[in-house]
Amino acid sequence: MLAVTLAALPSLLLSPSVPATGSRARAAAVRMAGDGPSFGDLDGSTARIGIIKARWHPEMSDSLIAGAKEALAACGVKEENIVETEVPGSYELPLAARYMALSGSVDAILPVGILIKGDTYHFEAISDSVSSGLMSVGMQTGVPILFGVLTCMSEEQARVRSIGPGNHGPDWGRAAVEMALLRQSAVGGPKSKFFMGFGDSGEDDAKPMTRPAERIGF
Ligand code: RBF
């Protein structure tokens, strides 16, 4: 079984470099969406979700966000528990996500952006820094940050992943609810914050990240 999987790897890894166009690209995109994760019953009634939109390619980002919000509603997320803001482009998403995470107002954040490859190295530079920036915000703040950024080789690739049946927004919305609930279970409730140990937490229910006896090294 493993041998078969490994044998298939080279062609899987190589396939993105063969440009898929027209109906072949569309079929591939729809298949990719169909292969996404399954989500169990998600009770999002206490979840607070932030959405940050990058304003480039607005038709597509609006469609992704509409798809995500439909999924949030289907999970029972209350409209008043959805916080929305926007930034000029995807490059600005990580810092905005950090501000939102530090505000303590949300349990998970969905940054949404679309990066389309042009003629220069710009796309690679931005894609890498946005992706590692978002991961770093999640790791540093403890607030789950989803990866709602399409990094596409062409506008057509972006369209099939954002508009119509290949829209990734609904899966991102469900993933945001699941991660919000995971965070709540980790920190002990919808509005709990980790207290990192500097100064005053300002909240009666803030929990220390570690009890003194669990601290390592000092
Ligand atoms: N932002 C996006 O969200 N998607 C893009 O496809 C995109 N393409 C860009 C191409 C060029 C040549 C430049 C200069 C910027 C682009 N941006 C794009 C904007 C970028 O994320 C950022 O907002 C600006 O560079 C300002 O910091």
TrEMBL record:
Species of origin: Emiliania huxleyi (strain CCMP1516)
Keywords carried by this UniProt record: Riboflavin biosynthesis, Signal, Transferase
Keyword Transferase: yes
Listed GO biological process terms: riboflavin biosynthetic process
Protein role: Catalyzes the formation of 6,7-dimethyl-8-ribityllumazine by condensation of 5-amino-6-(D-ribitylamino)uracil with 3,4-dihydroxy-2-butanone 4-phosphate. This is the penultimate step in the biosynthesis of riboflavin.
Annotated signal sequence range: 1-20
Record PANTHER family: 6,7-DIMETHYL-8-RIBITYLLUMAZINE SYNTHASE (PTHR21058:SF0), 6,7-DIMETHYL-8-RIBITYLLUMAZINE SYNTHASE DMRL SYNTHASE LUMAZINE SYNTHASE (PTHR21058)
Protein's recorded name: 6,7-dimethyl-8-ribityllumazine synthase
One Pfam family named in its UniProt record: DMRL_synthase
Swiss-Prot/TrEMBL catalytic activity: (2S)-2-hydroxy-3-oxobutyl phosphate + 5-amino-6-(D-ribitylamino)uracil = 6,7-dimethyl-8-(1-D-ribityl)lumazine + phosphate + 2 H2O + H(+)
HAMAP family in alphabetical order: Lumazine_synth
Keyword Nucleotide-binding: no
